[in-house]
C-alpha cells in the first residue's frame, strides 16, 4: 500500500489506500488471506507484529529475523495459497489505529528509511501498485466508498470488489435514473450507512457456498481463483436479476425460497437508498 501518496501525488484521482486515523487498506498485501480473518483476530495479529517490530533492529538481518519470528507463530495455511500474505503488515498507531506497512519510511522507528525492498514483491511494486478497482472504477463510485467507510476492516474488504461494486452502482444508478454524485453520500448520513450495510454483506452472507475462501478476495487479473457461477443445488431455481451480486458474494442456493430471501436482503438496501436519492 502507498501510505505516502496523496490524491494529487497518485496517478489515480481517488486515493483509497490510507484515508484517516482508522481507515486504511492492506488488501493487496494479502491482509485477509489468513487462517482466521475475524476482525478481532486480525487486529490482534497486526498489533503483535507492531510490538515485535518495534524491537527489531533496522538491519537486513534484524528484519529477516522479525519475519521468521512472525511466520513461526502464525498459521501459514491460507484460504488462497498462491496469494502472498505479507508478514510486514502491521498497525499504524498514531491518532488512531489502522492497518499499514511496517517497512514504510514513515512507519515508527524507520527514520525515513524505506525497507520495502526486503518484501516479497519488492520495493517498486509496493510503492507503485494500484488495484484494479482504483485503476478502473469511475471516480464517482470510488468517492462513495471513500466517503462511506469508517473502519479499515470493512474498507479493505469492499475496495477490491470491482465486479460487486460495479453491479451495485449500476443497479442503483438505474433505479435513480442518474449517476450518483459526491453530495449523495457523506460520512454518517443514511445513504452512507446503507452503502456500508451493503459492504457488510460480505461479512455474514448466509448463502455463501461451501468451500468458499470466505471474505478474502483475489483481484489480480491473472485468471487465478475466479469466482464460480452461483450454485444451485436442485433444478428449477430461477436466475435472479441480482445474479452478478450473488456470484460476487460467492453464493449457492438450495431452493427458490433462498433466492427470494437473498433478493429481499438486497431490496432492504436498494429500496430506501433509491427513495432517499430520488427525493433528495
Ligand atoms: S488494494 Fe487497492 S486500495 Fe487497497 S491498499 Fe492496495 S492499491 Fe490501495
Ligand atoms: S512490504 Fe509491501 S506488501 Fe508488505 S505490507 Fe509493505 S507495502 Fe504491503
Q: Topology of this structure?
A:
Blueprint: E1 18-20, E2 23-24, H1 39-54, H2 60-73, E3 89-93, E4 97-101, H3 123-128, H4 132-136, H5 139-148, H6 152-159, H7 162-176, H8 190-204, E5 231-232, H9 243-248, E6 252-253, H10 256-279
Parallel strand pairs: 5-6
Antiparallel strand pairs: 1-2, 3-4
Helix pairs in contact: 5-8, 6-8, 7-10, 8-10
The structure holds iron/sulfur cluster (2 copies).
Key phrases:
mainly alpha, 280 residues, 6 strands, binds iron/sulfur cluster, two-stranded antiparallel sheet, globular, two-stranded antiparallel ribbon
Can you walk me through this structure?
The structure is a single chain. The chain is mostly helical. The protein folds into 2 domains: 18-130, no CATH class; 134-279, no CATH class. It contains 10 helices and 6 strands; from the N terminus they run ββααββααααααβαβα. Helix 9 links the parallel strand 5 and strand 6. The longest helix is centred in the C-terminal third of the chain and has 24 residues, at 256-279. The two termini are 36 Å apart. Residues 4-11 have low confidence and may be disordered. It binds iron/sulfur cluster (2 copies). One iron/sulfur cluster binds at residues 1, 29, 86, 88-89, 101, 103, 116, 119, 121, 126.
